[in-house]
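Pasting as-is:
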Amino acid sequence: MARVGWVGFGEIGEPMALQLIAAGHEVHLWGRTAARLKPATDRGARLAASPADLASACDFVFLCITDADAVEQTVFGAEGVARGASPGKVLVDHSTIHPLRSRALAARLREETGMGWLDAPVSGGAIGAQQGTLSIFVGGEEADLEKARDVMSAYAAKITRVGESGAGLIAKCVNQTVLCATLAAWAEALNLAHRAGADAARVVEALEGSWSDSPVRRLHAPSMISADYPPGQAWTMLKDLDVVGDMAQLTKSPMPMQAIVTSLFRQQIAMGFDHTGIPGIMNVYHEGPLQR
């Protein structure tokens, strides 16, 4: 079992950390709000005084936090991970941030301390984290991944190295592009079904196993129909889509569909539906439940 440091106790980070504890790893935690960490400390996790102390005590440090500024502060701040880093240790960043920013931070950490860095964004949401079935896209050195793979297996069903530093986050850009386009397609298609006189719920049922089937149909289409949205925030997805847009510009990649979908999420938030999460894109087309 490994000595694992964990920073980030949000909707996805909390169940991931709890999975590590359940797997028998020695888990150390750091967070600004101690009350948020209680579910883990009640199960035996240890509190660290700072990210630096976390890194000093552990072989691995895992991050699952909001944005690139928070990642940089956690690693390179006055009491940051870098202060306790040393060669042979590995930082695994599950946050979704800009690939180029991550690449620069990884190079800095290795140059200053010798500590490895894997960008390792996840897909599967809170449900996947709770069930231990997440998919992880990894960028970084193969040797660092092989050190960390067994630890990540506590909450992931599939771990794939897709290239050097930053490549995991590029794969996450692809994931978010396809996911959001699928969400938008289901929203407008269900609205069409409703307006044309079909039972939208039966349409969702009928398309099981079809070429249009996906986890979006199973997990999100029912919420679009009932307007009973699980807790979530659409702005987190918009943040990711803005990163995709920037990468498209930098690489001169034409992505007109992505631009349209990004504008739809922006409109959802402007309409006051941020709290309805990613399936809440339905509100751009139809507010309230779809009723015959």
